[in-house]
Each structure stands twice: as structure tokens, then as C-alpha cells.
Amino acid sequence: MLHRVKDLSPEQKLAVEALLGRSVSNDEAVSVRTIVPAAIIPSQLSQEERTEALRRLDSYFAKIDARRKPVSDDEEEAIFTEAMKSVRPTYRPID
């Protein structure tokens, strides 16, 4: 539900500002929503199994890196930017 700041009581406005960590102006609107955070499932792997999995991943990525052709920094940046835009069309690199 959307609430116009100008329609909030002074106490509600103070609560919104406390939650946002900044002041709000009367021409703004706020929306408050609750969500249930995703449960974090603890790993079922032992420390040794985790270490081995990490070692195998490092080995796999080292093989992949060894096969790729070298590219310039500009080419690398262009490839990265293209990939980001494919999943986030409004992505703009920071210059």
C-alpha cells in the first residue's frame, strides 16, 4: 500500500524517517512491506568435503582459463558489459 508522506501523522513520519535513515518530504510517497527472509540451509558437507570441492572448482577454472585466448582490457570490458546488458538491459558501466 502506498502512503503519501503529507497524509502521515507526525509519529508515522518519524518512524518512516528512522527506518530510511533520512528525512522525507511531503511530496514523497512511501510503501511498507514485510517479507519472510529465505531460510539459510546449513551445509551438509564436512570441512574436508568443502575443502575438496573448492580444490576441484579451482582446478576446473584453471583448465578453463588455460584454454581461453588472451584479450585486451578493452575487449574484456566490452564482453563483460555485453553480458551484463543481456541480463540487465538498463545496466550502464561506471566510468
How would you characterize the overall build of this protein?
This protein is mainly α. The chain folds into 2 domains: 2-31, no CATH class; 47-87. Helix content is 49%, strand content 6%. It contains 3 helices and 2 strands; from the N terminus they run E-H-E-H-H. The chain has a two-stranded antiparallel sheet with strand order 1-2.
Descriptive labels:
two-stranded antiparallel ribbon; 95 residues; single chain; 3 helices; mainly alpha; 2 domains; 49% helix
In summary, what is this structure?
With 95 residues, the protein is mainly α.
What is the count of helical runs? 3
Proportion of helical residues: 40-55%
Order of helices and strands: EHEHH
Judged by helices, strands and strand pairing, the structural class is mainly alpha
Count of domains: 2
- Spatial gap, N to C terminus: 37 Å
Shape: flat
What strand order characterises the main sheet?
Answer: 1-2
Beta strands, count: 2
Parts with pLDDT < 50 across at least 5 consecutive residues: none
The fraction of residues assigned to DSSP E strands is 5-15%
What is the CA-based Rg, rounded? 24 Å
Main sheet specs:
2 strands, antiparallel
Overall pLDDT confidence: 90
